[in-house]
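Honest question from a wet-lab person: if I give you the sequences of every part of a complex, can you actually get the arrangement of the whole thing, not just the pieces? Trying it with mine:
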Amino acid sequence: GESVGLHLPTLSVQEGDNSIINCAYSNSASDYFIWYKQESGKGPQFIIDIRSNMDKRQGQRVTVLLNKTVKHLSLQIAATQPGDSAVYFCAENGNDYKLSFGAGTTVTVRA
Amino acid sequence: EPEVTQTPSHQVTQMGQEVILRCVPISNHLYFYWYRQILGQKVEFLVSFYNNEISEKSEIFDDQFSVERPDGSNFTLKIRSTKLEDSAMYFCASRAAPNTGELFFGEGSRLTVL
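Yes, you can. This is the full assembly:
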């Protein structure tokens, strides 16, 4: 079955608000997770990653939280902007950094 | 900024025909991948390639598929006899370092099989 999955397929957020995108995984041995963003008509683009020895990692306007107890990770986007409208995928690292992507959450930013 | 480039951007072919999708990875990258994305679905792993050989492949990557790095810059995906269900966006990706999950993806080649 699927090893990573997202909780909600769509998220609508007001410009300027914070966005939270959730992802669950099933393999307790997984030790490395990555968030990707895919804009319409483009390939996935790396946002941020986190290893299992951390529970939080921050980037520019983004924060990833990892809860290994419940096998859940989230991506928080601060002050969401129109350019953040995209599909967001969580990915789990496998052998040779073969990434297994989840189904994706489509984020729509309302002006 | 260096980028992964893919050609063609869109190819339409008849069922049973051979298709070659081409990719030029970022020049100092050593690890190469093909993924595909059927319309509206998630991105699926096909194959990884390192040191001139396949390092891992998925169930999707059957004997109709092959990859090649013919000249040190191009990385190609060949589908020998296309089927309707091969219609998808095919993404090439490359990675520089052995310890990062940051893959750099191309913009994709859309394959339509009629």
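Two things worth pointing out. The radius of gyration of chain B is 13 Å. Chain B touches chain A at residues 4, 31, 33, 41-45, 48, 50, 55-56, 91, 93, 95, 98, 100-108 (CB under 8 Å).
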